[in-house]
Amino acid sequence: QVTLKESGPALLKPTQTLTLTCDFSGFSLSTSGMCVSWVRQSPGKALEWLALIDWDNDKYYSASLKTRLTISKDTSRNRVVLAMTNMDPVDTATYYCARYHFTNNVFDSWGQGILVTVPS
Amino acid sequence: QSVLTQPASVSGSPGQSITVSCTGTSSDIGNNNYVSWYQQYPGKAPKVIIFDVYNRPSGVSSRFSGSKSGNTASLTISDLQADDEADYYCCSFARSIEPIFGSGTKVSV
Asked: Residue A67: exposed, middle, or buried by beta-carbon count in 10 A (0-12, 13-18, 19+)?
């Protein structure tokens, strides 16, 4: 059974750096084709893809947020970490980590999400 | 980041069929067969219901079906049920690896 769970701060101040952790089980990020991605959703808004790291440690970022994002993995601990710098109230959102299959480009398992609030 | 265009809302009566469209461009939907659809209940994480345009993951009802024509993908829900009331998002890819989500459609029953 594949599970993913996000953890991190629920509240941040503007300009601070957000660090989110995704702990997963049921698969290995060293298996060819396996990836973990981050997706966020502002309140009442659509899903927005942020970043992805693959089995070969290649990293991909949203073009619009690339300068603020860093994704990394610890394969032995089944963990992926996302850092987002210079947080702003517009970054208030629920942040999800999800398993992603490179073979058919599908997010097939999702964490429960974590709401991160940046007050103005 | 570009967004795929979906109708804001679609409604239907129990037992009816409805179709949710997802319009992109020749650079994304029109350029590959990697269209997926996600169902999301309020306060819950999304769940994949269609991938590779028309494939259903194990356990997903056959009442959900997907298709694509040109730059537009579609999700059809047949025999609409109360439990189908949720938000639905399409997803595809541009020439780069960057996934693109749709604007989302609220389905009301």
From this structure: exposed
* pLDDT 10s digits, A31-51: 999 999 999 999 999 999 999
Cβ of B98 under 8 Å from any chain A Cβ? yes
pLDDT for res B2: 62
* Amino acid in the structure at residue B71: N
Please state, in angstroms and rounded to a whole number, the distance separating the CA atoms of residues B107 and B77. Answer: 10
| Cβ–Cβ < 8 Å for B14, B85 | no
Q: Which residues pair with A116 in a beta bridge?
A: A93
- Cβ-defined contact of B51 to A108 (cutoff 8 Å): yes
Q: Testing the interface with A: which of B27, B31, B40, B101 to mutate, by most A Cβ within 10 A?
A: B101
Q: How large a percentage of chain B has pLDDT more than 90?
A: 88
In this prediction, residue A43 carries a pLDDT of: 96
**Measured distance between the N- and C-terminal CA atoms of chain A, rounded to whole angstroms:** 40
User: In sequence order, what DSSP letters do the residues of B45-83 get, joined into one string?
Assistant: --EEEEBTTTB--TTS-TTEEEEEETTEEEEEE-S--GG
